[in-house]
Every structure is written in C-alpha cells, then in structure tokens.
C-alpha cells in the first residue's frame, strides 16, 4: 500500500518542475523579543516561496530574491509567529511577542507533532524543568503525582525502575513485563528508560487514550510515553551547562520491631513449650538480662543492623548549539547511588550522548543521534528485608560461641532450636550480585520535502542494543549445625538487539478555513534476544574476586547448568493519520494501524483504528461575550490498540529434553507437551471524553477526562484441568474506567513575584468483566494468601474473611453458634470473630469475600511554586487512597510460628478481656483459625506524602555565569497507617519490598 | 539535474522497501528458539527410547508431599512437624480440609504425570508407524512399561480419593465426557486388566537384569502391581496367582541385610520389583536426579560425615508401631525403620515401656540424632547414612533410591491370599511368612493365622507408601486406626476431592 504512495510521490516529483522568478531584491533584518534581546535561530520564511533563512547569533537575517508584496513569516518556539509584507525598505526589524498561553505549544504525537489546541485525545506533556527536580536515575520517577491517570510506584533499590501504570491495569500478568508502558525515545521503542540521564530529556509526553496512542499499534496497550532528548538549534551560540547534585538517602518510617522483652512475653503467652525452650536455650547461651532476668541478655534490632545511609550524586555536562547548517547537542553524565541496605548494593552509570541535525539543503535534512549508557548495578539481597522482620531479637549478629561458623562467626538460630538460620547477614556478606548494563541507542534519519511546506518524506532507522552481564557469586560458608554452602558463580549474558525502520510521508496543507495533515507510514521491527546462563560450583580461589570467573569452577559442575535461549520476533505494520480542523473550531483526527506480529499464531494481522473529534466552543460567536473564558474545548475519542507484549504463543506441541537415572547412569530422553497456546492480540478498546478550559486570561486551566478502557481477549493464565499446565491464553476482558482531573492556576503578580498552584485527581476502577474458563475465576497468590480474579472484581484481589472482632471471653465464644458447629476449630477468647456471610452457621470457604485490591481507588497530587526575585521554591505532594497491602511479613508466622513480629502487633495483641478487638492473642496467632486470610492480614495502604521540596537561588551577575544553587528534599515525609516500611508496594504483597528512602541533596547549575 | 538525483534516491528507497517486505514474510512463520515435537525423526528407531526415558523421568519427579500424604494416616506413622503444616497434622488425625494444598498437589501431580505418560505412548506410536520386526516389538514393550507406570499412579489416586478418573489418552476433557468418573473397583479392575495386557510384551527378567534400562519395569513388576490391585479388590485368588507367578519364576530373593536394603548397597537388589532411581552419579557437583527426602529427616543431628544436612521432621514413626516392635523383639526391623532421639526414648520409658538396649539415638551407621521440638522419632527407611553420601553432596539422603514394590511384599500378599482361602501354587503361607521372618532374624512360625500375616506386614512394610493404612481400610479394621486419641470411622477412609478440582471438573460436590 505504502509502496504505491511512494511511487505516487516519485511521480509527483517528476512533474513538479521549478519555476524561476524575475524581478528580485535582497532584504535583511533583525528579530528580537519584547526586551530588545536578539533571538538567534528564528526561522524566516517567505510564504509560498522556497526562500528561507535562519537568524544568526545576533538575530540578523537576510533573504535573497524577494519581491515587493511578498509576505515573510518569522517563527520562534515559545513566541507567537509574525508575518510582514515586503515593501520598499530593505531593512526590517521584527519584534516577537511571547506566547500568552500554552495552547500553541506543540505536542509530540506518534510520528509527528500537533498543536496542543488541536488535540482531540488525552496527552500530557511534562517539561524538563519538572523532571529535573527529582534526584533519580529514572526520569519516570519524577512523574509521580504530577500526571493524572498515571500511577508511579517507586522502586527502592538503586537503579531499579519504578512501576508505571497508565490508566489502571489492563493486562493480567503484572510482573512479567507484560504491563510495561511503551517508551518511544526519539523514535525507537523501549520498555524501560533507565539508560537516559534525566538532564538529557527535553520533554516527556504521556499518550493516555487509545486514540492518541493507536498509531503505535501493538505495543501501545499499556499506554505510550514519548520522550524527546535535547537537541541544538541552527545558529545558536554554544551553550555550556553543568548540573550536579550530591546528597544522602535515609530510610524513613522504619518498622519498629518487638524487642527481646516483648518477644519473650509473646512466646510465654503462646503456650508453645517448644518456643519457650528456645528462650531458655538463648538464656543458657547468652546469659540473662540484668534488667529482666527472664529475658536473654541480647536485644538485636535487626532492621537497625542491616541498614545504612546511602550517598547519591549526579554530574552532567552538556553543550548545545548550532551553525548555519548543523545543530548539535552533546553531553556526559555520571550518576551514582548507594542503596540503604548494608551490603554491596549500589548503582553507577556513565552516559555519553550526541545528537546532530544537518540541513543538507533547503529541502533535505538528516541527522544522527546516539546515547551510550554504561551502568553497573549491585543488586540487593531482598530476602534480608524479610529475614530482618522475623529474625528473633534474642540472637546477636555475631555469636562468638558459634565456632563452627566460618569465615565469620555469624549467629545461627538453629543453635537455639529454631528451624531456620534466620540471620540475614549471611545474605548480605556472602552474596554478591553484579549486573553490568550497557545500552546503546542509535538513530539515523533522513528527511526531504517533496513539495515544499506540504509533502515531506522521512525515513528513520534505529538500533537499540542492550547487553546485560550478570554475575551472581555465592561465597562458601559454614554456620554450625551442619550448615555448609559451597561456592558457586552464576553468569548470565543477556543481549537484546532491537531494530526499527520507519518510513513516513506527511502531507500538510491549509486552504481557506481548512487545515489538513495526512500521514502515511510503514514500519518494520526485528527484536532479537539471546540469553545465556551458566553456573559453576566449587570455585578455586573464591576468596579473591580476581577468580570470580567460571574458568575457576569445577568443570563437572557445568553439566546441566548451562542454558542458552534465543528468541526473535518480527513486526510489520502500515499506518496512517489524518488531522483536520475547520476554522480552528471543529477538529477531527483519525489513525489506523495494520500490523503483524510473529508472536501470534492465530490471526497474526491486527487492524487498529481510532477517531477523535473536538469542538472549540470558545471560538463560536455566541461565546464572544464570555470574557472570563478564554478557551473551551470539548473532545471525544475512540480507539483500539493491540498488545503483543505478552508471551509468544507456540502454536504447536514442544519438546523438553530430560534425563533419568538407570543404575546410576544418566540417560537422556524427552517429554512432549500435550497442549499449547494459540493466541491472538490482546485488544484495548477505549472511549475517552474530555474537556479543556482556560479562564481568567489563561491563568486558570482545567483539564478533565473520563475514560472507559476495555482490554478484550486479555491473556490470562488458564490452568488446563487434569493436565495441570498453565497456559497463557486469550481468556477474558478487563475494564478500567476513571476520571482524571487537573487544575492549574498561575499568575505573575509582578516582575519579581510569580506563583502557581496545581492539583490533580485520578480515580481508578479496575474490574474484570469476562473470564472464559471452567471455574469462572482465576486464583493467584498462594493457598494461604489467596488472591482471586473474578468477574465483577479487580484483578488479583485479596480474598478472605471479614473480621468482626475478637472473642473477649468464654461466654462470647459459647454464645457463638460456630463454636458448637465447628468444635475442631477449638475457639477460645483471643481468637478472631469472622463474619458468617451466608448465615449457615459455619465459617468456611464460602464465607470468603473480596478484601480489596492493590490498586488504589484514587490518587491525588498537587504542587505549589513561588518565584521571588532570585529565589524559587516548589513543593509537591502525592497521595493514594483505597489500596490494600497484604502484610506478608506478619504472615510468615503461618509457616514458622516461632519468629519475631513488629512491635505494634506485640504490644496491641489481645491478652485479656478488652485489650484488643482487632488483633488475636499470641496463642491465637499460632492457630489455623486465625491464620486464614482475613482483614487482619490485609491492611490499608492509604498514604499522603510530601513528594518533593526544592528551594533555589539564582545568581545573575555580569561577572559570573548564570548560576543556580538548590536544595532538594525528595519524599521527606510520608504519612500512613500500614504496619510496614513503606506503603508503596508494587503488587500489594509486602514480603521483601525494598523501602523507598528519603533523599536530601544540594545542587548547583551553571550555564555559560 | 536535481530532479534526477531525487528521483533515483526514491527509486532506490522503493526497491529497498519492497525487498525488505518480501524478505521478512517467511520469518514470521518460524519460531526461533523453540523445538517443536514435529522435529523428531520418527523413522529413526534409536530415538524411540527417548520417549520411554522421558516417561521414567516423569514418574521420578515426585513431589515431596506425595509419599507423606499417601502414608500419614496409617497407625505406623504420625505427621510430626507439629506447628508447621497444620492441615497435614490434621490429616493424620482424620480431620480433612479440601482446600489444603497437599491434597490438590497429590491429585495434580499424579494426573498431570498420567497425561504426560499417555503423551509418551502417543510419541512411541508415532515411531511404530515406521517400525517393523524387533523395533516394533521394542515399541510394544515400551508402551507396556509405560502402562505399568501409569497403573501405579492410578492406584495411588484411587487409594486416596476412591472414585476417580481413568485416563488412557492425553485428551482428558474428552474422556471425562465419555466415561465420567469411575468407581474404585473400576479403576482397580482397569489396572489389573492393563497388567494382563502388558505382561506378554514385557521382558521376562528381574528389573536389575535389564541391560538397556537397568531397574526398568519388567513382567514381574506388572504381576506385582496386578496383585496389589486385586488385593485392594479382595480378589484373593487373583492375588495368589499373580504373586505365585513371581515366586515360581525363582528369580527373586530377599536381600540378606534388611538394614542395607534401604541404603545404597541395597539399590536394585534381587528383591526389587520396582524402585524409583535417584542419583548424583557419584560426582560432587553437576547433574543430579534427586527426590527431596528432607521432610523425612530429623531436624537436629550430628552426622558422621561433616555438613550432611538434617531434615524437617515431618514423618514420625508412631509410638504404637515402636511398642509393637519392642514387644515382638523385632530388633533388625525396628532399628531399620526408626531413628530415635533421647527425648523419644524418654517418652517411651515414661510410658512404661521397657526400652531394650539396642534402642539408641545413634543410628547403626553412627549418625547421632539430637532432640528436636518437632518429633520424637524419625523414619529410617528414607534415611541414608551420612557416610554413604557422595563427597560434597549434603542434602538429606541425597541420591537414595525409593523402593516402591519389593519381593517381601509379594511374599506377604501371597501368604495373606492363601490364608484367606486362595489356592497357592507351590509355596505354603508358612514358607512365605518365614522367608520374610528369617531375613529379619526371627524364628519360624507354623500354621500362620491371618493375624500373624497382618502383624508381619505391619512389621515388615511400615512407613512404605501407606501399605499399612490401605490394608486396614480394606479390612475395615477401624480399631487399629483409632489409636493414640484418634477415632476412625468409615467416613474417614478417603480424602475429599480437592476444592480446586471440584471447581474445575464435574466431580459433583
């Protein structure tokens, strides 16, 4: 199809002969802003002619070959364009006025740009200034609380990326990358932008509704984020910029654990003889406390032991500018962040970036862009967060009596009689998990005007190459009690080579009151992944990191420990876009994408159309007299998207190589699957209704959107009965709907003082509307901590008993029919009272209800900014309401009941009539009845957080380059009730979540 | 001139585009990095054994909970592991919870394996289309072997849940629709009939005589399974006939050392009719094919071999069994079946038992058990002495084989059938029982009664796959199961269907 278009354009070209002008002259002029400051790089163009110039450093331009009566137009980003007619004079001075509102602001859309006022979909832009305020390795973190409809869940460990959800959760598999947003960085596709330096980003554009993102077809179902990196401008003086900050990160809201005395009290009340024996063992081993002789003379606060403050720093140097034909931008960045877990846990990244755009001739442009990111990440041993919760406080970190422990005499809870080792320090000090991440983004493009100002052809090729080099070292150690670990090294080499080739043809025309843009394009993608993994054991010289290579491993250990996987998928697509407006009043927009993905074995071709309509009410004559309303637009859109960011379906039975033992000989054989997947696209169908209102001279701006977004044919894990294989199949529909509201007020009170206030609100209603399997529901989580996906409820909602209170005395127990009906439950005072939902007198599986979802009901955010003379101040906040967290750390007592617990539970337990109506007794905690999943284990995750505070001072002096110093407090205060570190738990199950630290930095920015 | 350049640029671009579009179209249809089952060369007879080895692998990958759950309700063994896996301990007390993961996991583990075995049969049938002569016979033998493996899995399932499904194909949905659920009698009859069908195709050898797959299934494995199925059916003549075939073949004999029978030296002995084989192939690193024996092990111990790991304490021989054995003075089998802790010995003494001096917290191989909170005793038949571990391998009982059917059980089934009135071929019941007793160092009995035989089974086969429990429920001997505070009734014989299966399959309630 697009081939035809090309032929047509070639044809067109041949017949579009050039005509030559007759009587001409040369004019010159200067372009300045309202303050007489010259504007370099402004474009000056004679309308309807191919005469074009760009102002130089001093704002000067010359135009050759113009005639009297010609009109030339001067444009400069951020300023209103101005037109002038060529008269008798040869000298012109043009004064451009700054744009009043942001409505003429150009927004990046798929494969092009559009004026913000012409948008019919829901697109939010965040500019560099906002992004840079957050000290982070991943720019998406800075969007938290800023963009309605976008939920960001922070990641605590250095170098890890936050979870980004645009408009709820539209795909079932939340942890496998299927729910990843598509990032389009300068035209290339990514599922992560951790390789970009925050300072290099010019803008982040979030395409929220299906109509806006449909042109990205199969990868757009979870939302699209378009990122532009900074570039230079033609005829711009080189500008040098240094930006650096350094600071410290500390854990906040650390969970207070039960101390030795509280722990011993709990154990004594538990009635468990075995556990009481362990306390005696501890007293025998470590002595009795002098304060309370019934408590061992040890009181370890494990969280305090495993944490440390961490350093963060970032330094960026950049230069951008341009000559007459070439614009350039380049820079380097060094970013370094330590984790707050006291082990080798840090992230270090070095970035190099260069971008060059060349005007080859009047009609042809080209450019290259390259970003290379070289990072080293030492991953944390997250199990430590979990172990520090349940490790008993009556055990020291180091136990000098544990003489069988080598090389360090770490304590081992087994020596006291406990089942597990518990001590997290073996994880911290005997494991080393290094990941070297190298990512290269390269892009080259070529662009030509086939018909000047009207028809443009662009071809663009991108290759992004990522190499992940993992080395996981297990040092050998012994820990007494016959515990020995032999040394091993696991090496992984995962390479990803993704190539994209895009070709577009854009036609742009204005005639009368009509304004039309038509785009047609073709895209080809090739994404290859190679994963190699090998594990070697018994490493010679393991104590020296110079021998941390597989070469030093026992060669026998490689058998069956070497794996290589390869996959490669291809995509081919054709797409088009039409944007039309009439009198700037009636807007229409449509896109279509037709695409094939090799991931699907059934109906591999998908067609994804979208339409949008807009009505700028404020342009109507009947609105002329409404003065306070400067702009009012109503818009509606509909679109379809595909998602191929899912497991590729196999389309056929597959073979696994296995072996079995026959007389101590391993013989090789194979097994074959009996079922397989045969999938087609997940398809998102979305309706969006929105409005944009500007009032009071554009000082107040309100944007509201309501959407209904269905993911049809959603891929869900369907357990095939009997065969007991889980197949990822097209099996249901997931609906997300919600309201997004953003309100911003800004005012320049005087030259010295300006301020702005913004607030936003997002509601999320996630619901599964269809599941096609025998059961009618899908279980998730474990049997003990059941999560369920049912029709009419959110994805993977917590599923258990509603708690009505705690039995306070025997009379209450006796009065309850369950005690008689279910004698095996052996109910006692201090046990939880469950609600008998069906009223049958029994508490059983039928009485379980949905206890909530890890997705919030609504999130809200806001910001305040003040500028007074050289000072600037900004503050933002963020909160969420309605999400639930499974306190899985507490839940560990189900499996190992002799462990420690948080102080809140230890203090507020039921221990006699009237002591608690929410927490069971210590003995009760050890009973199956109370261990069933109920509201007791599932807590509210609501929180409110001061997200960011920044204070800056800018030095403007003739002697000094422009310098700004600033202080940032990131996430200084968080308020919540949840009994954990951090209410930000990605999937709602808090077992070993890395807590998100507070960060305090000072920084300096110098521009020359 | 300019036009010409532009024109040629575009012509080139168009050409490239066309090329690109056509070159990639066939790439869309290949799936790189995936091995499809159609890639097997079915005309190559040497590849056929791969499907059979795959079937043995499937049967070898048993979940750790399976032998525990199959056995725990017997009066020979308790749950131990108090305070952990409470529903497992409840099961031991005949309190059942259909939501408990172990019930579902046992069901799933067995049925998904049955389907995998059926798929392996289909694979061999694919080969058969191209085979003739010896190769064809070999294919028939392989299928017969897999039918024996699949029969054993069906046996476990029907013993546990009573009325269950039979699957002969890898399309369970169709079979459920066509056949529905089968009664326990139907399942057992199916197993027995399948064995009759398999026997002519199987090698007339002891498993350890096989050279192609040492320890693989033979004709006598099928006879043994047929006997077990018919014992469950109380079809004693068929039991006597099937066991008689094994006895009269003269190929089998008891391994002289009862203790070492369950250790490395006793692997693939002349007593073995079927054992699941595990190994680390004598290497301290690299490939291993293990069963997870840790649940059987003691929690705290001082092994002779440094750094040999202990276990979880989830499988505790019962006081009842130990007292029974001490009363009989059945020393060899007691010290083989039970590993003691001092706390356990104390508990016996507190209970008024005169504990003989051979009972000690040191195993015959020198490993010393410390006291641990979970249990008093640990099971000996799943214990491999630490000195028999491969150097560098620390897992509890790492690489030990798991005996499923052995000649002693065959002899005792034969004796039971004959005492219950079946016609024996050759040997008398006395001879069968005494052969077993003599190996354990006990004297002869004469004129054995049914109680003698059942006592002998208790002593000989305790802690092995729930044989004791299934004997007791077959005989409706609920008094024996009502011990140490438990009370057993007919309603407790079978586990409820797992809730997850009730949700997914037409199992009724």
TrEMBL record, chain A:
Residues 1-21 form the signal peptide. InterPro entries: Beta-barrel_TonB_sf, CarboxyPept-like_regulatory, Plug_dom, Plug_dom_sf, TonB-dep_OMP_SusC/RagA, TonB-dep_OMP_SusC/RagA_CS, TonB-dep_rcpt-like. One of its GO terms (cellular component) is cell outer membrane. It comes from the Bacteria. It is found in: Cell outer membrane. It is a multi-pass membrane protein. The keyword Transmembrane applies. The keyword Cell membrane does not apply. Residues 115-224 form the TonB-dependent receptor plug domain. Gene3D superfamilies: Carboxypeptidase-like, regulatory domain, TonB-dependent receptor, beta-barrel domain, TonB-dependent receptor, plug domain. Keywords: Cell outer membrane, Membrane, Receptor, Signal, Transmembrane, Transmembrane beta strand, Transport. Belongs to the TonB-dependent receptor family. This is TonB-dependent receptor. It comes from Christiangramia lutea.
Automatic annotation (TrEMBL), chain B:
It is found in: Cell outer membrane. Keywords: Cell outer membrane, Membrane, Signal. It holds the Pfam family SusD-like_3. Residues 1-23 form the signal peptide. Residues 271-481 form the RagB/SusD domain. SUPFAM superfamilies: TPR-like. Residues 92-206 form the SusD-like N-terminal domain. GO terms for cellular component: cell outer membrane. Belongs to the SusD family. This is RagB/SusD family nutrient uptake outer membrane protein.
């Amino acid at each position: 199809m697009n081939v035809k278009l090309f032929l047509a354009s070639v044809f067109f070209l041949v017949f579009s002969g050039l005509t030559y002008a007759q009587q001409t002259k040369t004019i010159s002029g200067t372009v300045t802003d309202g303050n007489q400051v010259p504007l370099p790089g402004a474009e000056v163009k004679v309308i309807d002619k191919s005469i074009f110039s760009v102002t130089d450093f001093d704002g000067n331009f010359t135009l050759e070959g113009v005639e009297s009566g010609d009109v030339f137009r001067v444009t400069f980003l951020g300023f209103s364009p101005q037109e002038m007619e060529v008269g008798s004079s040869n000298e012109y001075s043009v004064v451009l006025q700054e744009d009043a509102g942001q409505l003429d602001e150009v927004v990046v859309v798929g494969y092009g740009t559009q004026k913000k006022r012409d948008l019919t979909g829901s697109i939010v832009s965040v500019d560099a200034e906002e992004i840079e305020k957050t000290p982070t390795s991943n720019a998406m973190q800075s969007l938290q609380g800023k963009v309605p409809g976008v939920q960001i869940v922070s990641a605590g460990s250095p170098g890890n990326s936050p979870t980004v959800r645009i408009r709820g959760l539209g795909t079932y598999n939340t942890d496998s990358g299927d729910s990843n947003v598509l990032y389009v960085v300068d035209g290339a596709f990514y599922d992560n932008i951790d390789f970009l330096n925050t300072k290099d980003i010019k803008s982040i554009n979030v395409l929220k509704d299906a109509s806006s993102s449909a042109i990205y077809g199969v990868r757009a179902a979870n939302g699209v984020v378009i990122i532009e990196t900074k570039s230079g401008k033609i005829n711009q003086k080189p500008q040098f910029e240094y930006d650096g900050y350094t600071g410290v990160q500390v854990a906040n809201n650390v969970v207070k654990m039960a101390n030795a005395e509280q722990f011993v009290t709990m154990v004594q009340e538990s009635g468990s003889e075995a556990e009481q024996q362990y306390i005696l063992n501890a007293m025998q081993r470590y002595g009795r406390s002098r304060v309370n002789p019934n408590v061992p003379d040890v009181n370890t606060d494990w969280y305090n032991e495993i944490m440390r403050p961490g350093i963060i720093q970032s330094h960026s140097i950049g230069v951008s500018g341009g000559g007459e034909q070439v614009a350039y931008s380049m820079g380097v960045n060094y970013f370094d962040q330590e984790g707050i877990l006291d082990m080798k846990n840090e992230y270090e990244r070095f970035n190099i970036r260069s971008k060059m755009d060349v005007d080859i001739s009047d009609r042809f442009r080209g450019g290259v862009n390259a970003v290379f990111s070289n990072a080293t990440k030492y991953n944390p041993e997250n199990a430590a967060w979990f172990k520090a919760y349940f490790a008993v406080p009556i055990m020291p970190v180091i136990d000098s009596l544990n003489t069988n422990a080598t090389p360090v005499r770490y304590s081992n809870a087994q020596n006291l009689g406990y089942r597990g080792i518990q001590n997290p320090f073996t994880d911290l000090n005997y494991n080393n998990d290094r990941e070297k991440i190298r990512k290269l983004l390269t892009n080259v493009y070529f662009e030509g005007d086939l018909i000047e100002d009207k028809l443009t052809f662009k071809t663009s090729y991108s290759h992004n190459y990522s190499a992940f080099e993992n080395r996981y070292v297990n040092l050998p150690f012994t820990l007494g009690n016959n515990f020995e670990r032999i040394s091993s090294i696991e090496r992984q080499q995962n390479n990803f080579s993704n190539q994209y080739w895009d070709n577009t043809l854009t036609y742009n025309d204005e005639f009368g009151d009509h304004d039309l843009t038509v785009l047609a394009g073709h895209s080809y993608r090739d994404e290859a992944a190679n994963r190699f993994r090998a594990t070697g054991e018994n490493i010679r010289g393991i104590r020296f990191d110079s021998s941390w290579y597989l070469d030093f491993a026992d060669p026998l250990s490689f058998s069956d420990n070497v794996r290589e996987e390869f996959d490669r998928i291809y995509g081919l697509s054709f797409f088009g876009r039409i944007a039309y407006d009439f009198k700037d009043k009636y807007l229409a927009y449509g896109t279509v994408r037709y695409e094939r993905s090799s991931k699907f074995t059934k109906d591999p071709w998908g067609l994804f159309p979208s339409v949008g309509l807009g009505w700028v009410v404020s342009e109507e004559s009947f609105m002329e007299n409404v003065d306070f309303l400067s702009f009012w637009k109503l818009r509606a859109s509909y679109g379809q998207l595909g998602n191929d960011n899912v497991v590729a379906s196999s389309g056929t039975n597959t073979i696994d190589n296995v072996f079995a033992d026959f007389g101590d000989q391993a013989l090789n054989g194979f097994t074959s699957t009996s079922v397989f997947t045969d999938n087609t696209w997940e398809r998102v169908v979305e309706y969006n209704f929105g409005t944009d209102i500007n009032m009071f001279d554009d000082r107040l701006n309100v944007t509201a959107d309501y959407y209904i977004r269905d993911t049809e044919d959603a891929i869900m894990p369907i357990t095939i009965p009997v065969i007991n294989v889980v197949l990822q199949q097209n099996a249901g529909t997931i609906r997300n709907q919600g309201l997004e509201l953003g309100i911003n007020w800004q005012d320049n009170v005087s030259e010295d003082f300006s301020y702005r206030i913004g607030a936003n609100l997002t509601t999320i209603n996630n619901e599964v509307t269809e599941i096609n399997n025998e059961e009618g529901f899908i279980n998730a989580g474990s049997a003990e901590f059941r999560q369920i996906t049912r029709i009419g409820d959110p994805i993977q909602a917590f599923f258990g008993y509603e708690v009505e209170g705690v039995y306070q005395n025997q009379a209450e127990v006796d009065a309850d029919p369950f005690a008689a009906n279910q004698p095996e439950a052996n109910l006692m005072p201090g046990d939880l009272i469950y609600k008998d939902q069906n009223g049958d007198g029994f508490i059983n599986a039928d009485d379980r209800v949905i206890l909530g979802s890890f997705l919030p009901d609504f999130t809200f955010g806001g910001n305040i900014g003040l500028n007074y003379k050289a000072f600037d101040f900004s503050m933002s906040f963020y909160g969420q309401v309605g999400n639930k967290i499974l306190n899985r750390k507490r839940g560990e007592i189900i499996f190992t009941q002799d462990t420690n617990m948080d102080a809140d539970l230890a203090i507020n337990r039921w221990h006699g009539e009237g002591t608690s109506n929410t927490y069971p007794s210590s003995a009760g905690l050890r009973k199956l009845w109370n261990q069933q999943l109920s509201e007791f284990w599932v807590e509210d995750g609501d929180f409110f957080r001061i997200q960011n505070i920044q204070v800056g001072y800018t030095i403007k002096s003739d002697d000094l380059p422009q310098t700004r110093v600033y202080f940032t407090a990131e996430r200084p205060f968080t308020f919540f009730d949840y009994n954990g570190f951090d209410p930000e738990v990605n999937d709602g199950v808090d077992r070993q979540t890395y807590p998100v630290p507070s960060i305090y930095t000072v920084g300096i920015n110098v521009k020359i | 001139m300019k036009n010409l350049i532009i024109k040629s640029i575009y012509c080139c671009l168009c050409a490239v585009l066309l090329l690109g579009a056509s070159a990639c179209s066939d790439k869309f249809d290949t799936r790189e990095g995936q091995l499809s089952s159609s890639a097997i060369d079915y005309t190559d007879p040497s590849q056929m054994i791969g499907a059979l080895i795959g079937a043995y692998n499937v049967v070898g990958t048993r979940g750790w909970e399976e032998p525990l759950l199959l056995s725990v309700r017997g009066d020979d063994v308790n749950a131990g592991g108090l305070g952990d896996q409470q529903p497992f301990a409840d099961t031991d007390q005949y309190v059942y919870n259909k939501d408990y993961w172990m019930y579902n996991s046992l069901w799933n583990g067995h049925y998904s394996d049955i389907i995998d075995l059926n798929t392996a049969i289909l694979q061999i049938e694919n080969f058969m289309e191209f085979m003739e002569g010896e190769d064809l016979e070999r294919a028939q033998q392989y299928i017969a072997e897999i039918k024996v493996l699949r029969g054993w899995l069906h046996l476990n399932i029907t013993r546990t849940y009573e009325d269950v499904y039979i699957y002969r194909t890898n399309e369970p949905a169709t079979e459920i629709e066509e056949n529905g659920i089968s009664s326990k009698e139907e399942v057992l009859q199916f197993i027995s009939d399948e064995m009759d069908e398999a026997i002519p195709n199987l090698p007339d050898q002891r498993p350890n005589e096989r050279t192609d797959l040492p320890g693989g299934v033979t004709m006598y494995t099928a006879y043994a399974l047929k006997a077990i199925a018919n014992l469950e059916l109380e079809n004693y003549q068929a039991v006597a006939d099937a066991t008689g075939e094994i006895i009269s073949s003269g190929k089998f004999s008891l391994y002289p050392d009862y203790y070492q029978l369950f250790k490395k030296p006793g692997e693939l002995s002349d007593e073995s009719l079927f054992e699941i084989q595990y190994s680390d192939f004598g290497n301290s690193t690299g490939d291993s094919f293990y069963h997870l024996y840790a649940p059987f092990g003691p929690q705290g111990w001082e092994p002779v071999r440094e750094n040999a790991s202990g276990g979880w304490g989830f499988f505790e021989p019962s006081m009842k069994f130990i007292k029974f054995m001490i009363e009989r003075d059945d020393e060899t089998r007691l010290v083989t079946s039970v590993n003691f802790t001092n706390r356990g010995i104390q508990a016996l003494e507190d209970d008024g038992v005169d504990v003989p001096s051979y009972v000690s917290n040191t195993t015959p191989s020198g490993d010393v058990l410390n006291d641990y909170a979970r249990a008093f005793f640990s099971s000996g038949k799943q214990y491999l002495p630490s000195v028999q571990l491969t150097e560098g391998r620390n897992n509890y009982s790492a690489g030990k084989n798991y005996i499923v059917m052995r000649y002693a059980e065959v002899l005792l089934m034969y004796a039971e059938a004959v005492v219950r009135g079946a016609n024996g071929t050759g040997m008398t019941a006395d001879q069968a029982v005494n052969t077993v007793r003599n190996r354990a160092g006990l004297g002869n009995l004469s004129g054995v009664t049914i109680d003698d035989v059942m006592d002998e089974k208790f002593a000989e086969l305790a802690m092995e796959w729930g044989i004791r429990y299934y004997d007791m429920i077959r005989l409706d001997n609920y008094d024996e199961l009502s011990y140490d505070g438990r009370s057993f009734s007919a309603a407790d014989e079978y586990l409820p269907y797992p809730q997850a299966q009730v949700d997914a399959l037409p199992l009724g309630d």
